[in-house]
Write a structure and sequence with these properties.
The complex is a heterodimer of chains A (about 280) and B (about 220).
Chain A (H helix, E strand, L loop, with lengths): L1 H6 L2 H88 L4 H28 L3 H5 L1 H16 L2 E7 L9 H22 L3 E9 L2 E8 L14 H12 L3 E6 L5 E8 L11
Parallel strand pairs in A: 1-2
Antiparallel strand pairs in A: 2-3, 3-5, 4-5
Chain B lengths: L9 H10 L1 H10 L5 H25 L5 H22 L4 H4 L1 H19 L7 H24 L6 H26 L7 H28 L3
Helix pairs in contact in B: 1-9, 2-3, 2-9, 3-4, 4-6, 4-7, 6-7, 7-8, 8-9
The chains are: A alpha+beta (about 280), B mainly alpha (about 220).
Chain lengths: ~280, ~220
């Protein structure tokens, strides 16, 4: 009976045929869209996992680098430094043991001044490998000391201005060390490549961020430094990513170089950056 | 006195053909920005629009325009196949595109010569054309799914064009198959061709959207 009814109604059959074909077409499109979306989501998840893994490796490299630097710095300070001090003491004893020998006194004085110079060099190397002042005096004071030294040794004026009200002094050692390394790298780049006569480092608070502005008056560059970055710039980027910081570099030929960092204040309290 | 809008064929003879001016206008406006694939598709649209215009003029003057549909069916197979040939580059189907084109055009010509002569509706040609383009549109979806990278701007527009073609040809397939049978029944005839016009409208709107959303 039902079959007969269908047979007797061509409109219904046509409608059924068109609907069936349309349904198939729409199903194909629906499955395509669904499958494709899932595929893209999976791809995004894989990319994210790869990025996290890469960041994890970079963190591990930076951490082991810092640990190694600290160990070498400690060895230099404790062993070589103390060995040199005892050598200086022995030379003084020779002076005291053979008094009145004019020629010997002159030679031992030369020895002593050479040893003093080596002790000073070793201390400098040790401090640059692991800035001991960071743990003792905090970021701002250590950076000030570093800037003073760099100004003296290179002739480039480095001005430091802190408008954060001492927040930077209280930050965690890992964060302080990372920021200090970034400032070291930027200063070193300016001295090596920029032919600048002046550098200014300004720190301020902007809402929930600490804004750090590094600027030099050097020759600048038209090249995008993030596209053609070396190891130094790569390290800066990795460290800033570790600290969840936003950053930008501005430069053009003849107009100097500016590097802006916005560091979330919550990062300052983080116990470790490397986890 | 009945106006044109009261005509049972108003939707299929006026509204739908006019709706094609939208994708055509967008194609003309943005033609210079288009990549090669969309330029080729724009040419299909221009030819389609021209055929529709000529067909409408002939029908307005009560002149049989079925010969135009016969000829245009062949032109459509060639232009759309060339468009898909470009899209399916790098797939197995691409290797056989020339053979596919020759086969289907030959079938259309054989149909005119021996079965459905020039002044009748080419139901057979349109049916096999539907099968061809259902196959090619699904092949394009498969190609995109097999590809690792997400589609680019051109690919995104082409996906909407492809969807429009798939909806139109699969929906119309049944209509083309039974077109010979319903020619004698006025009500059925009107229903079938209004349904066909609705599918065309959907397709044109998808074309318009696809071309409009393309940005260089």
């Amino acid at each position: 009976m039902e079959i007969q009814k269908i047979n007797g109604n061509p409109l219904f059959i046509i409608l059924l045929g068109v609907s069936g074909s349309l349904f198939l077409a729409l199903s194909v499109i629906f499955f395509y869209v669904k499958y494709h979306r899932r595929f893209l989501l999976q791809k995004a998840a894989i990319q994210k996992a790869e990025l996290t893994h890469r960041q994890y490796i970079v963190n591990a490299i930076i951490q082991s680098q810092e640990n190694e630097r600290m160990r070498i710095s400690k060895d230099l300070h404790d062993h070589i430094g103390s060995s040199l001090s005892s050598l200086r003491f022995m030379v003084s004893r020779i002076q005291k043991t053979v008094p009145g020998a004019q020629g010997l006194h002159q030679i031992t004085e030369e020895y002593k001044s050479n040893i003093d110079r080596i002790i000073e060099d070793v201390r400098n190397i040790s401090h640059s490998l692991s800035p001991a002042g960071l743990a003792l005096f905090g970021f701002q004071d250590t950076l000030e000391e570093f800037c003073e030294k760099m100004s003296k040794s290179t002739g480039v004026e480095i001005h430091l201005k802190d408008n954060t009200g001492g927040i930077l002094q209280q930050m965690n050692f890992d964060v302080a060390l990372s920021l200090f390394r970034i400032m070291q790298e930027l200063t070193s780049n300016t001295i090596k490549h920029a032919a600048a006569s002046m550098v200014s480092i300004t720190t301020t608070t902007e809402n929930e961020f600490i804004a750090i502005r590094y600027a030099d008056n050097g020759k600048g560059t038209d090249v995008n430094i993030f596209n053609q970055r070396g190891i130094g710039m790569y390290n800066i980027e990795s460290r800033l990513t570790m600290m969840n910081a936003r950053f930008e570099a501005k430069s053009s030929a003849g107009a100097g170089f500016v590097f802006n960092i916005w560091l979330p204040q919550t990062t300052l309290d983080q116990t470790s950056l490397y986890e | 006195m009945s106006s044109l809008s009261d005509s049972p064929f108003f939707f299929m003879t006026v509204v739908v053909p006019l709706s094609e001016t939208l994708p055509v206008a967008i194609a003309i406006y943005k033609y210079k920005q288009f990549p090669r694939e969309l330029k080729r598709f724009a040419w299909y649209l221009f030819l389609n629009c021209t055929a529709n215009c000529v067909g409408s003029i002939l029908s307005y003057h009560w002149i049989n325009n079925l010969w135009l549909i016969q000829i245009y069916a062949v032109v459509e197979i060639i232009t759309l196949s060339l468009f898909f040939k470009m899209l399916l580059k790098g797939t197995r189907v691409h290797k056989y595109m020339n053979a596919i084109m020759v086969t289907f055009v030959t079938a259309a010509v054989v149909n005119v010569l021996f079965f459905q002569h020039l002044f009748t509706y080419p139901g057979f040609t349109k049916s096999i054309e539907s099968i061809l383009f259902i196959f090619l549109t699904i092949s394009y979806f498969k190609k995109v799914l097999d590809h690792v990278d997400p589609p680019n701007k051109t690919g995104n527009s082409v996906l909407f064009i492809n969807s429009g073609l798939l909806i139109y040809f699969s929906g119309s397939f049944t209509l083309f198959v039974i077109s010979k049978l319903i020619i004698i029944n006025f009500t059925l005839n009107r229903f079938v061709w209004n349904t066909h016009a609705s599918l065309l409208l959907i397709m044109y709107m998808l074309f318009a959207f696809a071309l409009w959303r393309y940005k260089k």
